[in-house]
Design a protein that fits this description.
Its EC number is 2.7.7.27. The protein has nine helices and 29 strands. With 408 residues, it is of the alpha/beta class. It has two domains: 266 residues, Alpha-Beta Complex (Spore Coat Polysaccharide Biosynthesis Protein SpsA, Chain A); 105 residues, UDP N-Acetylglucosamine Acyltransferase, domain 1, CATH 2.160.10.10. Helix 2 links the parallel strand 4 and strand 5. It is elongated and about 75 Å long.
């Protein structure tokens, strides 16, 4: 079996989903009720048979490291299995990580110790399923210098993504980061081949590229902006690996949580009757860390004559520890230990752990971060002009309330 070193990029500031990243790095942001965003990449590793994982951290990494330490302590050191946290060690320079490529450059000592044949580089802030060993096998079969994970997406998303152009020989012949006028897929002018931020490199090739890039004063030290274009200029062999060849479910679901609206929409994807991204797939389980809360429950089913309190959750995800006490929850995602009190109404919202929603409160189209108390009779999401005076509003009008906000 070929030797492989795996690095997960988990140090991003996540500025475009602020204030959800006010107190945590982007991969540590809660998602889908009980998960953190990084759980999906790590679960892909486990399901792909990869049990030697380096997680590269930088900004506000405490909650991320705590989550992984408590929820991912499944590795057997006697079998040389591990998950390591590596902040910028500053062995090579006195700087923090300056870009995705610099993350690996500053850890070439780790690569030297492990002596791998190949290096797998993963983003820790995407939602998807993928068998990475399929990608490695493809890389080896092509004799590639580098392989880039790609997916077909709508052309209008190109300003936020890296875009690949494929040649007749099946290799990547051009690559542009966040182009305004991208090259589209031949015969499919409304779609592009987008980079997933996943790479397999042959070790010696990558080491040489990283060392060369480190000396470029005008480099941003980024894989998509600098390393891949440099390799293309040298006519090195770079192949695309389409997600559809590595997703056993066949759905090719992939979400780059690039902004607040993308985060909200990805959560809402999960509450469909038959969601494209299936979290209930026993053949591709998603692991996480959970505290031991009691089961969720709904209470009160009174008639109008008895007072009309009815605890109901419809078309929603309701996590453990939640109590819907005479309130209504519809088309929403509730993380653990949320309480919805009598006559409160919650629609189309993402509610994180420890939120208390008071009596007669009305919430619609909101993301409410952890440990927020919503006073009784509070109205959120029904009056855009009023909401703008108090809260952060996304481009599409979603109301975001940061962790621990005190609402008066």
């Amino acid at each position: 079996m070929p030797r492989i070193s795996t690095f997960v990029m988990a140090g991003g500031k996540g500025e475009r989903i602020y204030p959800l990243t006010k107190d945590r790095t982007k991969p540590a942001v809660p998602f889908g009720g009980i998960y953190r965003i990084i759980d999906f990449t790590l679960s892909n590793c486990i399901n792909s048979g990869i049990r030697k994982i380096h997680v590269l951290t930088q900004y506000k990494s405490l909650s991320l490291s705590r989550h992984i330490r408590m929820g991912w302590n499944i590795f057997d050191a006697e079998l040389d299995e591990f998950i390591d946290f590596i902040p910028a060690q500053q062995w090579i320079s006195e700087q923090w990580y300056q870009g995705t490529a610099d993350c690996i450059y500053q850890n070439l000592d780790t690569v030297e110790v492990e002596n791998p044949d190949f290096i797998l580089i993963l983003a820790g802030d995407h939602i998807y399923k993928m068998d990475y060993m399929k990608m490695l096998e493809f890389h080896i079969s092509k004799g590639a210098d580098a392989t880039v994970g790609i997916i077909e997406v709508e052309k209008e998303k190109s300003p936020n993504l890296g875009v690949a152009e494929l040649g007749a020989d099946g290799r990547i012949k051009a690559f542009a980061e966040k182009p305004q006028h991208p090259i589209t897929i031949p015969g499919n002018p409304d779609h592009i081949y987008a980079s997933m931020g996943i790479y397999v490199f042959s070790r010696k090739v990558l080491e040489a590229e990283l060392k060369e890039d480190s000396g470029r004063e005008n480099s941003s030290h980024d894989f998509s902006k600098d390393i891949i274009p440099s390799m293309l200029n040298k006519r090195l062999k770079i192949y695309p690996f389409n997600l559809k060849n590595g997703d056993k479910s066949g759905t090719c679901y992939w979400r780059d949580i690039g902004n607040l609206d993308a985060y909200y929409e990805a959560n809402m994807d999960l509450i469909r009757v038959t969601p494209v991204f299936n979290m209930y797939d026993k053949d591709w389980s998603i692991r996480t860390y959970q505290e031991h809360f009691p089961p969720a429950k709904t209470v009160f089913s009174q008639s109008q004559e008895e007072g009309g309190r009815r605890g109901m959750a419809l078309d929603s995800i309701v996590s453990s520890g939640c109590i819907i006490s005479g309130g209504l929850v519809q088309r929403s995602v509730l993380s653990p230990n949320v309480r919805v009190n009598s006559f409160a109404e919650v629609y189309d919202s993402v509610i994180m752990e420890g939120v208390n929603i008071g009596r007669y409160a009305k919430i619609k189209g909101a993301i409410i971060d952890k440990d927020v108390n919503i006073p009784q009779e509070t109205v959120i999401g029904f009056d855009p002009e009023e909401d703008k005076k108090k809260y952060v509003i996304s481009d599409k009008g979603i109301v975001i309330i940061p962790k621990g906000t005190v609402i008066k």
